[in-house]
Design goal:
Blueprint: E1 2-4, E2 17-19, E3 26-27, E4 30-31, E5 34-35, H1 39-59, H2 71-87, E6 100-106, E7 109-110, E8 115-123, E9 135-142, E10 150-157, H3 187-200, H4 213-221, E11 227-236, E12 244-247, E13 253-267, H5 277-281, E14 283-285, E15 290-303, H6 307-310, E16 323-336
């Protein structure tokens, strides 16, 4: 932040003014609550990200969008580009520019830094050959007045899965505090709860689905003669990987959060785990009898209100449990032994 004035010796209390691009003012350490971004600023951030993403994808060069991504999306994007650059040194011959348009900007009002907003966009990457309409939800974060806007989360959902957000009298969204106890699961606890659930089946706070009960079952039933599998799931909450959420009209919240997952494949004597091109590009060590793959994943969930906070109708349609809307995993490292 840019500081105006200097601390004057002899004063018992210092008054610090913090003037930023968005007009934030700090007096006696108190921050005025202001919009995270102005709409033209948000639109420019989306444009800058898309241009950088396309340049990086066309060249398979992570350096070309490294300053426009962060968090779990950044980790996945950078590792993926690094891998593909290794075995496609001449770039992406099949590159098709990503288009993100028809954007709606959901901008929360908050104090201090970092600041962030959600871009609800239409893409030219609809699934099933364009038969299944989807929306790309991209979260942008700015860590300081002098920092660039960076995309930290991405989720692809059907239009019907985008909720109505709670807005104030100025049309600004209401951010959810990490420790919000009015929700069935506080955002700060989602990563820990999810990774514990994948490991033990508890806490049973997630609705059944592909990325919850289905994934546990897939792991349990994965079999291959001569090979054994081990899984380790870890919360990922620090620094740029923290959860971000917005209050929804139903009393719940739409929340993005991150996690980390390891899959170790061990072969019997005389066998070796298979190594594909992506794994080989990110591999350290030599694959003899075991291969460990490390993935970062981002999740988008709808969290209902706690039953006691919303009455008997709390979490209607989800049984009061967290509903997984999208999961975006990506290989970020591999280790051979």
């Amino acid at each position: 932040m840019t500081r105006l004035g200097r601390l004057t010796t002899g004063l018992a209390t210092a008054t610090v003014l913090c003037v930023t691009a968005s007009g934030c003012v700090t007096v006696h350490g108190e921050l005025e609550v202001l919009p995270g971004a102005k709409k033209p600023e948000a639109a420019q951030a989306l444009k800058d990200f898309t241009e950088a993403y396309n340049a990086a994808d066309k060249a398979f060069d992570p350096a070309l969008d490294a300053d426009r991504v962060t968090g779990s999306l950044g980790a996945i994007n950078q590792a993926g580009l690094k891998a593909r650059q290794t075995y496609n040194p001449d770039g992406n011959k099949a590159h098709k520019p990503l288009v993100l348009d028809d954007a709606t900007y959901v901008i929360p009002k908050k104090a201090g830094w970092p600041r962030w907003f959600l871009a609800d966009t239409d893409s030219n990457r609809d699934q099933d050959g364009g038969k299944l309409d989807t929306r790309w939800l991209v979260v942008f974060v700015r860590s300081s007045p002098d920092a660039l806007w960076k995309a930290s989360y991405l989720a692809v959902v059907q239009p019907s899965q985008v909720p109505e957000f709670t807005l104030d009298e100025d049309g600004l969204a209401i951010p959810v505090e990490p420790e919000d106890e009015a929700l069935a699961v506080a955002p700060a606890d989602l990563s820990t709860s999810y990774t514990a659930y994948l490991r033990d089946g508890e806490p049973d706070v997630f609705t059944p689905g592909t990325a919850t009960s289905g994934w546990r079952e897939t792991r349990r039933t994965t079999r291959r003669a001569g090979f054994s599998y081990q899984y380790i799931d870890q919360p990922l909450t620090g620094a740029t990987f923290g959860p971000l959420g917005l209050r929804t009209e139903d009393g719940g919240a739409l929340v993005f959060f991150s996690s980390k997952h390891f899959e170790r494949q061990t072969a019997a004597k005389g066998l070796k785990p298979e190594v594909n091109a992506d794994v080989k590009a990110l591999l350290t060590g030599e694959v003899n009898s075991s291969l460990t793959k490390e993935r970062v994943s981002s999740q988008l969930v709808h969290v209902p209100p706690r039953a006691e906070a919303a009455g008997s109708d709390a979490g209607a349609g989800s049984g009061g449990k967290v509903r997984m809307l999208n999961r975006l995993p990506g290989l970020v490292a591999a280790k051979g032994e």
